[in-house]
Specification:
- With 358 residues, the chain is α/β, with parallel strands linked by helices.
- It has three domains: 178 residues, P-loop containing nucleotide triphosphate hydrolases (Rossmann fold, 3-Layer(aba) Sandwich), CATH 3.40.50; 61 residues, Helicase, Ruva Protein, domain 3, CATH 1.10.8; 97 residues, Zinc Finger, Delta Prime, domain 3.
- 56% of the residues lie in helices and 8% in strands.
- The protein has 17 helices and seven strands.
- Helix 6 links the parallel strand 2 and strand 3.
- The N terminus is likely disordered.
- Bound molecules: adenosine-5'-triphosphate (ATP) and magnesium ion.
- Adenosine-5'-triphosphate (ATP) binds next to helix 2, helix 4 and helix 11.
- The site of adenosine-5'-triphosphate has 23 residues, from helix 2, helix 4 and helix 11.
Length: 358
């Protein structure tokens, strides 16, 4: 038997048929030409992963010493969870990558049968390596919060039984959707939303690689709209630069259909100073001419309210009312009625302000 030969009878169809957002180019880090930038600029090594220094360092050390525990990576979308574990797999196995991992995501069937059969089959076949280090295999369960409770319960025993030869990595957005028994078997790492400095740095890198013309204002606007989601940032950058090669702040807001900060300032001015009917007409006119959605306006007004000087009680009521408007709009209610409610909230706040000033 040749060195490093792997005895493994599991059909590879599962990891080869990945679909959906977790889809990754498995050809050992060969970058995807053309196509969406989120895939083109997916980090191939742990060093490429932006932010999360502590987590990456810890995982890097554990993989280096071949002491990888079972992992639970969780956090909001687009923060690098899938990218991190794939970089780990590349580091651990190099060219043998595809033989040593089983990746299942929400687009694959992961009911109780899959856990019982495929994962067990994969985990129970021994990988015989004659190299210096004994490699354990890796089962990656991406979007694990979409797994049924039954499947999660079935996984408990499977994890324990095959700990010797296999490591499991569960990835999800909400750790609370993973049953406590599974959580306690894993080392948890939370991927927080990326901070603006890290998003800016990564975007600068892409801008330089692609040779784009983006103003500072445009870059700041993308970072602001992305809200710590690097996938979203890259998607905005790609679509906005197609729409306008010279990317300014205005172009970014226009392309994404978000209200400009100066529009919000204008709307807030009307809300706080003009009579009810004038505000109603002005805002309606602006919404039609600029194609704004009321839900975006309500969301952007909220941070603005924090910057206006007013007594805390008035502010609290206003924020509460804005949240209600946003909540109702999320269910597709009538925009006109909700605009009325928004104006009503500000009218009440104005009355309270006048009373407080006396
Ligand atoms: N920390 C990061 N460093 C570098 N690139 C990142 C990072 N986070 C996200 N990205 C970019 O965003 C894309 C999506 O990242 P990834 O698939 O790792 O997100 P995720 O955390 O798994 O999100 P989801 O919860 O939606 O599955 C990557 O292809 C990469 O281009
Ligand atoms: Mg993912």
């Amino acid at each position: 038997m040749a060195d490093d030969m792997i005895v493994d009878s599991v059909p590879r169809s599962l990891s080869a048929s990945q679909k959906g957002k977790g889809k990754v180019d498995l050809n050992n880090g060969r970058q995807v030409k053309g196509g969406p930038w989120v895939e083109k600029y997916r980090p191939t090594s742990l060093a490429d992963v932006a932010a999360h220094k502590d987590i990456i360092d810890t995982i890097d050390r554990l993989t280096g010493e071949n002491r990888l525990p079972h992992l639970l990576l969780y956090g909001p979308p687009g923060t690098g969870k899938t990218s991190t574990i794939l970089a780990v797999a590349r580091k651990l196995y190099g060219a043998q990558y595809q033989n040593m991992i089983l990746e299942l995501n929400a687009s694959d069937d992961r009911g109780i049968e899959v856990v019982r059969q495929q994962i067990q089959d994969f985990a129970s076949t021994k990988s015989i390596s004659f190299g210096p280090k004994v490699n354990v295999k890796l089962v990656i369960l991406d979007e694990a919060d979409a797994m049924t409770k039954d499947a999660q319960f079935a996984l408990r025993r499977v994890i324990e039984k095959y700990t010797k030869s296999t490591r499991f990595c569960l990835i999800c957005n909400y750790a609370s959707k993973i049953i406590p028994a599974l959580q306690s078997r894993c080392t948890r790492f939370r991927f927080a939303p990326l901070d603006p400095a890290n998003v800016t740095e990564r975007l600068r890198y892409v801008i330089q690689q692609e040779g784009l013309d983006v103003t500072d204002g445009g870059l700041a606007a993308i970072v602001r709209l992305a809200n710590g989601d690097l996938r979203k940032a890259l998607n905005i950058l790609q679509s906005a630069q197609m729409a306008s090669p010279h990317l300014t702040e205005e172009a970014v807001y226009l392309c994404t259909g978000n209200p400009m900060p100066k529009d919000i300032e204008q709307i807030a001015y009307w809300l706080l100073n003009e009579p009810f009917s004038t505000s109603f007409q002005n805002i309606t006119k602006m919404k039609t001419s600029k194609g704004l959605a009321l839900v975006d306006v309500a969301r952007e007004l909220q941070p603005f309210v924090f910057t206006i000087n007013m007594p805390p009680t008035v502010r609290v009521q206003l924020i509460d009312a804005l949240a209600d408007v946003e909540y109702r709009l999320a269910f597709g209610t009538n925009e006109k009625l909700q605009l009325g409610a928004l104006l009503g909230a500000f009218t009440r706040a104005r009355t309270a302000l006048v009373a407080a000033a006396r």
